[in-house]
Specification:
Rossmann fold, 6 helices, alpha/beta, 7-stranded mixed beta sheet, 9 strands, 28% strand, binds S-adenosyl-L-homocysteine
């Protein structure tokens, strides 16, 4: 199966037409083989306009959401980025195509193993998949220029605020377990300036800033 036409059409119809403007983001979304990150039985649906199940009750976000979150970080290429919720590793690959170094934290052991394997197979040497609770961030890469939280929170995890550089951005879905709003917070003189992106539905973050179950 040739996935390239599907990827092209995804970029034109789902991303560009809906207002994603950052050419760098559009370029890498056209390049990264999203189907490689989803289970065999979902490969043919990988480029659809919806989230795709990746097992263990988790999903990889809809392509538009991945693109919009990446665009909101305004990366130029020299940044260190932290992702909370590696899942399939797809979002991390998109970030790694643009940023200098990506750290991505994941709680579920099997997803850690799987995402490491696929990122390695595709040749990403600037991504580190870390196993654990991402709420505390990851000290090795501190401080970060950008942070993406790809699971729903009811507040921004405090330690992540501290691990962000001046001028850095955190993109995070905030709300209740069922519905959230996606925000981008920009750190300015220790304070946070908030901008609303759109309504969204993410799987819940497990932990203090999310929900325990
Ligand atoms: N960004 C992923 C999709 C994320 S789904 C991708 O591109 O595929 C959300 C992920 O967050 C799930 O894999 C879930 O296990 C993980 N997660 C939930 N709470 C977490 C926490 N506290 N720390 C790290 N990962 C967490």
């Amino acid at each position: 199966m040739n996935y390239e036409p599907l990827r092209e059409s995804m970029v034109e119809n789902q991303l560009r037409r809906r207002g994603i403007k950052d050419e760098l983001v559009l370029k890498v979304m056209k390049k990264v083989p999203r189907h490689e990150f989803v289970p065999e039985e979902h490969k043919e649906r990988a480029y659809g306009d919806f989230p795709v199940p990746i097992g263990y009750g988790q999903t990889v976000s809809q392509p538009y959401v991945v693109a919009a979150m990446t665009e909101a970080l305004r990366l130029k290429g020299n940044e260190k980025v932290l992702e909370v919720g590696a899942g399939s590793g797809y979002q991390a690959a998109i970030l790694a195509e643009i940023a200098k170094k990506v750290y991505t934290v994941e709680l579920i052991h099997k997803l850690v193993e799987k995402s490491r394997k696929i990122l390695k197979k595709l040749g990403y040497t600037n991504v580190k998949v870390v196993e654990g609770n991402g709420e505390g961030g990851f000290k090795e890469g501190f401080p970060y220029d950008g942070i993406l939280i790809t699971a729903a929170c009811h507040k921004i995890p405090e330690q992540l605020q501290e691990q962000l550089n001046e001028g850095g951005r955190i993109v995070v879905p905030i709300g209740d377990r069922a519905f959230q709003e996606l925000f981008v917070f920009t750190k300015k003189k220790g304070d946070f300036e908030r901008a609303f992106l759109f309504d969204c539905r993410f799987v819940p973050l497990v932990g203090e800033s999310g929900w325990d179950y």
